[in-house]
Design goal:
Elements: H1 6-18, H2 32-35, H3 39-53, H4 61-65, H5 70-80
Helix pairs in contact: 1-3
Protein name: Acyl carrier protein
Organism: Nocardioides luteus
Domain Carrier: 3-81
Length: 83
């Protein structure tokens, strides 16, 4: 199974927000609410990661509730690829 590193996941995240005419800030501490990144956007990003790695990601609801920043999203998606 292939895995994506943090820069690769960030690139996919930038593509997801670009579809909405937005630019992903360089600052990983930027709040998702401030950039308009919603749960639907997260789902789209997760699907893109799955397509790239050729495997399904396993999420826990508790882990998803603690996501507040760009960095949180990147950390989670990089971490769960190895599970």
């Amino acid at each position: 199974m292939e895995t994506l590193d943090r820069p690769a996941v960030r690139k996919l995240m930038a593509e997801v927000v670009a579809v909405q005419g937005k630019t992903l800030p360089d600052d990983d501490t930027a709040k998702l609410a401030d950039i308009g990144f919603r749960s639907l956007d997260f789902s789209e990003l997760a699907l893109r990661v799955e397509d790239e790695i050729g495997d399904e990601l396993n999420f826990e609801a508790a882990g998803l509730r603690s996501i507040e920043t760009i960095g949180d999203v990147l950390d989670l998606l990089v971490e769960i690829q190895g599970q």
